[in-house]
Amino acid sequence: ELISARKSGRSFLHLELEQLADLLWYSAKSIETFCNDKGYVTSHRSSPSAGARHPIDLLIHRPQVGGLEYYNPFEHSLCALGLEEEIVLQFIGHIQVSMPDQSGTLIWFLAHPNRTTAKYENADSLIWRDAGALIQSIQLTAAAMGLGSCAIGTLGEPFLSMMFDQNATILSAGGIIVGNNLVL
Length: 184
What we know:
The chain is α+β, with helices and mostly antiparallel strands. The protein has a single domain, classed as NADH Oxidase (3-Layer(aba) Sandwich). The protein has helices at residues 2-5, 17-27, 85-98, 113-117, 124-144, 159-163; strands spanning 12-13, 30-35, 41-45, 56-61, 69-72, 77-80, 105-111, 147-152, 171-181. Strands 1, 4, 5, 6, 7, 8 and 9 form a 7-stranded antiparallel beta sheet that branches. Strands 2-3 form a two-stranded antiparallel sheet. The two termini are 24 Å apart.
């Protein structure tokens, strides 16, 4: 029933912090953490991941707070990121081109390919599958909570590369906006 009822929306009201906390708790929090014999940390979460590597980090933009925050799935916490404000504003403006007048919370996916390539050769498709599985987990959790959501159809470039070292081994893997449904 939940899967049949889930649909994307395009207009949202902001999320309360408690709603965001619940959404992330059920869709992205690390449930168990393991350290293998080579010292590599893997984790069990509600969203599947190739080799339990979970290469996707979540960046959060709450319009009422501004800036970007990092979601720590191990401690279930948010940490403000000290990124250049002008570039963050350009990035948010880029997102608003396809989703104007948005009060919903943006959850952005930042992929660390090395987490997956440390175990698998030709891991690109696995990273994109992980991103897709995580989007689905967030969307189904949002639907179960009575919230609306919409996956974003851009990778946010060149802004993500400008925010982080261009030589870094990270890449943008898309994002999703989640919020309270706007009732007209």
